[in-house]
Amino acid sequence: MKRGGVVAPIIAIALSLVFLFPFIWLVTSAVKPDEFLKRWPPVWWFTPTLEHVKGLFDPDSPFKLWQFLANTLFICACTVTGNILASSMIAYGFARQKWPGRDILFYAMLGTMMVPAQTMLIPVFLMFRRLGWINTFLPLTIPAFFGNALFIFMLRQFFLTVPRDLLDAARVDGHGELAIWWRVVMPLSIPALAVVGLFSFLNSWNDFINPLIYLLDESRYTLSLGLAMFQGQTATEYGRLMAASTLMTCPIVVLFFFAQRQFIEGVKMTGIKG
Amino acid sequence: MTRGQKRELRLGLFFISPYIIGFLCFTFFPLLASFYFSFTDYDIFSPPSWVGVDNFVKLAKDHLFWISLRNTAFYTVFSVPLGMTVAFALAHLLNRQLALRPVLRTIFFLPSIVPLVAASVLWVWVFNSQYGFLNWALQPVCNLLNLLPGVRTAPPNWLQSPTWAKPAMVIMSVWGVGGTMVLYLAALQEVPKELYEVADLDGASTWHKIRHVTMPMISPVLFFTLVMGLISALQVFTQAYIMTKGGPGSATLFYCLYLFQNAFEFFRLGYASAMAWILFAIIVTITAIVFKLTGRFIYYEGEHNR
Q: For B180, which of A126, A238, A272 is closest by C-beta distance?
């Protein structure tokens, strides 16, 4: 690492302000009284109001915050559970003893990550439609129970670091492979499982296209879909829109401050988010 | 195959069985099905009817298809290199002893985890041409330019302007480069200090060190982010769906947005499947080209030992 210098820190701070300003604009607009919102030049000095935030909790508001939040959290809980269980079980299959065809299947799985989701979108939609799953949470949750190539890859890398002797000792003790996976490997892999859980949560929290395709009734909307629809209906009520965006972003930012290490680890392991 | 091997095979397949089922249901059969649909006329209400290569012929004559392809190319060609450059510059700035380093890293990283829908709604308001924050910040710049003789500039209308709507999307994408920056920063910290010391002894300039030490040393990460960046830029959808619905005119009608409209708004499932397969082919081709072109520039540690 280099010494500080003077120019670099100044440039870095200036750029950080540029990156920060959209956030400032977001939060100030969310608490700006209506009469100041549409002013040119923008008013920066005003008494903050909670009227926009309160408006979102109004039962008559088209943005049903509690409902959307409950739906989103339910979906997130299912996908986090599904991804942790299924991806770790599959990853264990790829990490333990070598078996014929293991590596070919593993690389084939990595290859499927290249296929754009759009190519599968229509047939998968038709399949769920035939099953009568449209307007339910099933299309958004059930696939998580079949594993995710990226998470399987991450967990396999981690499982490979579990000492073989430990697994062999458990085998000598007469434990079956399922018990070894569940009782030996899983407890040792909590840091990696936390990263998978976090990214699975983020994926569901941020997902837009799947809720857009599968959810029809307003009572089923997720936060992402609800916010997009709200924006479509009230394109000019910027105070409320910014309040809703702030509320949707807040939990992620708070989560970041609690789980900074997992975020950074996850980004490093997955390359690019999403 | 010995009995032990058979047992291992059975156990291995047992553990990965959820993936095999998922792969068949959500990847393999859907791929086959969409390949078949791409040769049919299918409106969801009546069964698909075989039309041969009709969809592809129609696509070749569909000017919206070409516009969407051009728009997506524009977005990819500008957002990916720009994003990589900014991410690299930020990582380079942060890769030194700075008291504020953790704070700055957090500030640069945070935008990348803002939910895309929330970010899109926010940027509509940032880009607002009447009351938006961006044009407020640009006004002084324009005023300065206007002092020059013969110059008359005003901040653009961004999302309402056919010229500026796509650049606006590119600008927004640069805000989200924090994840890439974190990757570069991690890679920069792995570069052995001795290399820079040797370069200093040779009297290398900062630029030379970046060009001939840093970039080769982190080339695998640069390559990885290039490929992933291209793949995700080609699939840009949410921003355009929320911010502009493809407008004004069809200035931000990106490929996947047009695909989505065909599938779920016009119910032309066969036509949309043909588009999906063309996208797949484009992604495979571009990835192959990038592999071929950059292969010799990538330095993998320990490669000469192999």
A: A272
pLDDT, tens digit, for every residue of B26-75?
A: 999 999 999 999 999 998 888 888 988 999 999 999 999 999 999 999 99
Give the domains, in start order, of chain A with CATH numbers. Answer: 50-270 (1.10.3720.10)
* DSSP H or E segment with residue B296: none
Closest CA in chain A for residue B87: A15
Residues of chain B with Cβ-Cβ distance to A244 below 8 Å are 118, 121
Q: What is the ipTM of this complex?
A: 0.90
Cα A217 from Cα A134, distance rounded (Å): 10
* Residue range A178-235, pLDDT digits in tens: 888 998 899 999 989 999 999 999 999 999 999 999 999 989 999 999 999 998 887 6
Distances (CA, A) of B155 to A1, A236, B138, B175, B239: 41, 21, 6, 20, 22
B58-300: CATH topology is MetI-like fold (1.10.3720)
Pull the structure tokens for residue A182: 């569940």
pTM of the model: 0.90
Indicate yes or no: CB of A119 within 8 angstroms of CB of B13. Answer: no
| C-alpha–C-alpha distance, residues A122 and B263, integer Å | 7
